[in-house]
C-alpha cells in the first residue's frame, strides 16, 4: 500500500474544512511500529485545533490529520522491534503531530499498548486520551484513595466518565456535576453525589472536599475553591482559562500533564479488561461521518466518548 486515506484540514475553520485526502502511507523506522487504525476516538482537542482556537498556543503544520488516539493492529515493524508484534491488537495516544484519523500511522513501539482479546477494538479506542487524562489528574497529580472526597466536574463526558470510575474503584467518595438528564448515568458509573448543574449550584451544596478535578475552567473553576478544605487540591485540565487563587484559599492548584504514558495506559487496559472500569462509548460514527464527529464534540454535551470507525 503506497498511499492511504486520511481525514485532514488544510486551513482553520468549521467542520466543513475537513476532507478525505490521499496521502503517502508512512513506513516504520527503527524502534517504530506501523499500525492499521481500526477505530479512532474523538476528543475536544480535535475541533479546537481545527477551528484555530489554539493556534497561538499549539503550533501545527497544515495540512494536519485529525485525531490523537485510537486502536488497531500492528502491520509492520521497524528495526529493533520484534516481528512477533505483527498482528498484535494495540491502543495508543499517537505522538504529537501524528493524526490518528488515517488508515495507517507509525508510532514508537513502546507507545502501542497491547489489548487483550476480551477488550473490543471500540472500547480500546475509547480509552487512551480520556482515560489517561483522568489518570494524570487522579492517580499521578492528586492521588485519590479510600476516605478521600473528590468532586469531578463534567462527569458525563469523555474524561469525567473515566474519572468517576477510577475514583470510585480506588475507594474515594465521588461527587460530580452533570446536567439533570445525566444524573442516573453518572450514578451508574459509581458517583455517590451527583449534582445537576442546570438545577443546583454545586458550590453551595458541597464543602470540605480533598480534591476537585476541574475539566471546565472559567466560572466553574472560580466557584470550585469554596468546595475544597484548607490544604486540599484543585487539579485541572487545560480547558477554559482560569485565575489561580490557591493562596487566597490555602489550597494547591495543579495542572495535570496528559502524556502518552504507556505504563499507565497498560494499567487502564488491565482495569478495563477486568471490568473495574468501562470505557463509555456514547456514539459510534462511520468513517464518512467525520465532520459530524467534530460537530458533536464541539457541541460539548456527549455522554462518554464518540468514536469513529476508520476501517
Ligand atoms: N491535555 C489536556 O489538558 C486535556 C486532555 C483532555 C481533555 N482536556 C479538556 O478537558 C475538557 C473535557 O474533555 P472531555 O473529553 O471530557 O470533553 P467532552 O466529552 O466533550 O465533555 C462533555 C461533557 O461536559 C459536560 N458539561 C458541559 N458543561 C458543563 C457544566 N457547566 N458543568 C458540568 N458538566 C458540564 C457535559 O455534560 P452534560 O451533557 O450533562 O451537559 C458533557 O457530558 C475539554 O475542554 C478538553 O479539551 C484537556
Secondary-structure blueprint of this entry?
Layout: E1 3-9, E2 18-24, E3 32-42, H1 44-51, E4 64-65, E5 69-77, E6 89-93, E7 104-108, E8 113-114, H2 121-126, H3 128-141, E9 149-152, H4 158-169, E10 173-178, H5 183-188, E11 193-196, H6 202-205, E12 209-214, H7 218-224, E13 228-236, H8 246-249, E14 252-255, H9 262-273, E15 281-285, H10 290-299, E16 305-309
Parallel strand pairs: 9-10, 9-12, 10-11, 12-13, 13-14, 15-16
Antiparallel strand pairs: 1-2, 1-4, 3-5, 3-7, 3-16, 5-6, 6-8
Helix pairs in contact: 1-10, 3-4
Bound molecules: NADP nicotinamide-adenine-dinucleotide phosphate.
Could you please describe the fold and organization of this structure?
This protein is an alpha/beta fold. The chain folds into two domains: 3-127 and 279-309, Medium-chain alcohol dehydrogenases, catalytic domain (Quinone Oxidoreductase, Chain A, domain 1, Alpha-Beta Complex); 130-255, NAD(P)-binding Rossmann-like Domain (Rossmann fold), CATH 3.40.50.720. The chain has ten helices and 16 strands. The protein has helices spanning 44-51, 121-126, 128-141, 158-169, 183-188, 202-205, 218-224, 246-249, 262-273, 290-299; strands at residues 3-9, 18-24, 32-42, 64-65, 69-77, 89-93, 104-108, 113-114, 149-152, 173-178, 193-196, 209-214, 228-236, 252-255, 281-285, 305-309. The strands form three sheets. Strands 3, 5, 6, 7, 8, 15 and 16 form a seven-stranded mixed beta sheet that branches. Strands 11-10-9-12-13-14 form a six-stranded parallel beta sheet, sandwiched between helices. A three-stranded antiparallel beta sheet has the order 2-1-4, with no helix packed on it. A hairpin with an 8-residue loop joins strand 1 and strand 2. Helix 1 packs across helix 10 (290-299). The longest helix is centred in the middle third of the chain and has 14 residues, at 128-141. The relative contact order is 0.16. Bound molecules: NADP nicotinamide-adenine-dinucleotide phosphate. NADP nicotinamide-adenine-dinucleotide phosphate binds at residues 43-45, 129-130, 133, 153-154, 156-160, 177-179, 182, 197, 215-216, 220, 237-239, 258, 297, 300-302. NADP nicotinamide-adenine-dinucleotide phosphate binds next to helix 1, helix 3, helix 4 and strand 10.
